[in-house]
Amino acid sequence: MILPPSSTGQPVLRASGLSYALGKARRRLQVLRSLSLEVYPGEKVAIIGPSGCGKSTLLSILGLLERPDAGEVWIKGVSMAKASEEERARMRSDALGFVFQFHFLLESFTLLENLLLAMRRFRGVSTAAVNERACALLSEVGLGDKIHRRPHELSGGEQQRAAVARALAHDPQILLADEPTGNLDTASADRVFGLIAYLAEKKGQGVVLVTHNLSIAERCDRVLAMQDGVLIPHNFVKPKKRASVVDFPEPVLV
Amino acid sequence: MQSNWIIAWRLLVTRKWAMALTLLGVALGVALFIMAQAETQGLERFFVRTVLGTNGAIRLGDRLQDTLHSSTDEEGLLAITTTREGKLYVQGIDDPEALRSAVQRFSGVKGISEVLEGQARASSGIYTEPVTVHGIMWEAHFPLSSLDEQLVQGSVASFKEAPEGLLCGSFLARRLGVRVGDWVDLTSNAESRRYRVTGVYETGVEDIDRNRLYLHLPEARVLFHRPYGGVYFQITIDDPKAATALAVQLEDTLGHHALSWQEREQVWLDIFWLIRFSSSVLVCMVILLAGVGMFNSLALLVLEKQRELAILRAMGYTRKDVRQIFALQGVMIYVIGTLLGWALGALGTCALKYIPLRLRGLWVGEEPALAWEVDHYLTAALIVAVVVFFASTIPARRAARLEPGQVIRGSAL
Ligand SMILES: Nc1ncnc2c1ncn2[C@@H]1O[C@H](COP(=O)(O)OP(=O)(O)OP(=O)(O)O)[C@@H](O)[C@H]1O
Ligand SMILES: [Mg+2]
User: Fold this and answer.
1) Does the beta-carbon distance from B315 to A118 stay under 8 Å?
2) Inter-chain residue contact B316 with A90, CB threshold 8 Å
3) pLDDT tens-digit readout, B76-113
4) Strand A96-99's sheet: what is its strand order?
């Protein structure tokens, strides 16, 4: 069912048989039904699917923020099923970078502080070195002159770029991005995605990217569509002319 | 850990006004507690000091009548016997010299003053007032009492020199319309005699200032026709707290009724306790209210910061970290609020000095007596600690229970 990866070796992220239901009793909704997924180092996987199909839910399970009802998640080959809350938290701060769907940054902190707070795993390292790394990363996403701004003093695109920098600040092996380009115009979306692609390539990170933007999905190594709680490979029928068309109306914009 | 402090502080200051109000509430509670304690305990201490200084710690009086013996004294005179609380008493002390040396052998006894007490009417010509006359030996009495310090008019020396001298309470002097040098007629059941006011004292305890006159003991004996015996001992001791125990000992050993100041002033002490208790309850309500306010702001903060908490969790912060962040906010409010409260309390206590306190029938001073006690500050801090603990623990636990997954989805609204 899953396309064989182009890269070799162990998957950096593996999920198998994930099932997850939300809500109680009659409003119970089976969001995931025995879903499986493998992501290899340096691979960019796009996940598409209609609104409400459970993409964010999948990311929060892959990101160890929720435990599945059934199934297992391996991060760097380590099973997380029986890991304690502490161990999962340590794994999040070490190996996982998260870009949220709608809000990206800690509002009470400056950009630089947002990055520094995400860099817990560098506790032993000197403050100066950590600072320098954070500043370098912010410069790389084009925000070098705005490191002391609060998120609300930035445009949406800038915030999303900062969120990408924050998600990568601690040098994770896996980046989980939930519509990092949503609500952005084409140029800005391209820029944010270009950034993710560039940084992931540079570090060999595995990327799982949820998006509604097909032109962006196309630029990933693999595209998976979420349907009835499972992921199926998506093949583009149309030529690239219609690439940037969204396959259904964006509910947020209505 | 260090970053938790920073996060706690930042989240706290995002709601500046709510937190400022919370801090103010805590500080005000602490300050009011300190002020209430300073005032009430100050008053109580003043009262105790005054009654100890004026009436002594133990009053040793009537001899307990041994029912197996005859009710006549050694000289064959029939003694006056009365029944009190089911016991037979012979009124007063009949052999002061023997008893004095016996009492002096008890450890802790500082001094003994013989007092002959009696009721009389005092008249200044225009006004007449009922009074309690205390006949004293000044050589024994003055060193034990604060009477000399309490004189507002006249002098001790002029009382010592004048056999017909009289010391009058300030309140009584006002009611009689007399001052130092004026003459006052005292009328007992037996006799009417004329005395000169040589001093006016003010203890501050209205009960005493309104009723009491001091005469020389020989003069009092003449006035009441009690040429010997009939006195009681006013005993001062080193440790006033031990008075009750010593009184029991004295009574058991010497066979004379002994009354400690605690028993004697029971009513007033109970009233003071009640005042302190009720003011404490009132102030604790203020602290509790501040706690409710604090709980409110923190609970709102948790709701408001759900997204940021979810981001923190995604960045690898544990439930424990989140709980700690909110607990630390409690600690911050506690420390700042308490320090502020201490400062306010100290300032407020100073300010209380300028607010005259008048309690009818109890206190007549202009400047209230205030107690400065580290204990008050520590107790206030302790009470606030308990309140703050509960006010911050519940929101902290609520914050820790937050499911970041829920926030990630729920925010899609
Ligand atoms: N507490 C809940 N109880 C029951 N159902 C819920 C609950 N929270 C979310 N859902 C449902 O779970 C489904 C999956 O939500 P999720 O946010 O994962 O979808 P999504 O694919 O990310 O959608 P979008 O593209 O709009 O972001 C939705 O249909 C939603 O209505
Ligand atoms: Mg979503």
Assistant:
1) yes
2) yes
3) 445 555 555 556 666 777 777 778 888 888 888 888 88
4) A96-99, A174-178, A206-210, A44-48, A222-227, A230-233
Residue range of the domain that includes B41:
2-53+268-409
Q: How far apart are CA A231 and CA B76, in angstroms?
A: 121
- What share of residues in chain B are helix, strand, coil (percent, to 5)? 55, 20, 25
Q: How many residues make up chain A in this entry?
A: 254
Q: pLDDT tens digits for B20-29? A: 988 999 999 9
Are the CB atoms for B128 and B178 separated by under 8 Å?
no
* Percent of chain B residues topping a pLDDT of 70: 89
Which has the closest alpha carbon to A149: A138, A136, A137? Answer: A138
Task: Looking at the complex, report in whole angstroms how far the Cα of residue A241 sits from the nearest Cα belonging to chain B.
Answer: 30
Query: Is B130 part of a structural domain of the chain?
Result: no
The C-alpha atoms of residue A202 and residue B377 are separated, in whole angstroms, by: 61
Which of A56, A66, A90 is closest, CB to CB, to B412? Answer: A56
ipTM, two decimals: 0.83
DSSP string, B183-238: EEEEE-SS-EEEEEEEEEE--SBHHHHHHEEEEEHHHHHHHHT--S--BEEEEEES
Contact across the interface for A89 and B317, Cβ inside 8 Å: yes
What residues in chain B have per-residue pLDDT under 50? 68-73, 76-77, 411-413
User: H or E segment at A41?
Assistant: none
3-state secondary structure of B363: strand
Cβ neighbors of B107 (< 8 A, separation 6 or more) are none
B155/B165 Cα distance (integer angstroms): 11
Report if residue B38 sits inside a domain: yes
Instruction: Report whether residue B412 contacts ligand 1, using a CB cutoff of 6 Å.
Output: yes
Helix (H) or strand (E) holding A130: helix A127-140
B343 to chain A, closest Cα gap in Å: 31
DSSP code per residue over A8-40:
-S--SEEEEEEEEEESSGGG-EEEEEEEEEEE-
Residue B224 falls inside a structural domain? no
Kindly report the length of chain B: 413
Distance CA B207, CA B209 (A): 6
Domain count, chain B: 1
Residue B104: partners with Cβ closer than 8 Å, 6 or more residues away: B112
Per residue in B391-409, pLDDT tens? Answer: 999 999 989 888 888 877 7
Rg of chain A over all Cα atoms, to the nearest angstrom? 18
> B143 lies in a domain?
no
Q: Which two tokens stand for residue A36?
A: 């499986």
Residue A31 C-alpha to ligand 1 middle, in angstroms? 8
Distance CA B239, CA B249 (A): 15
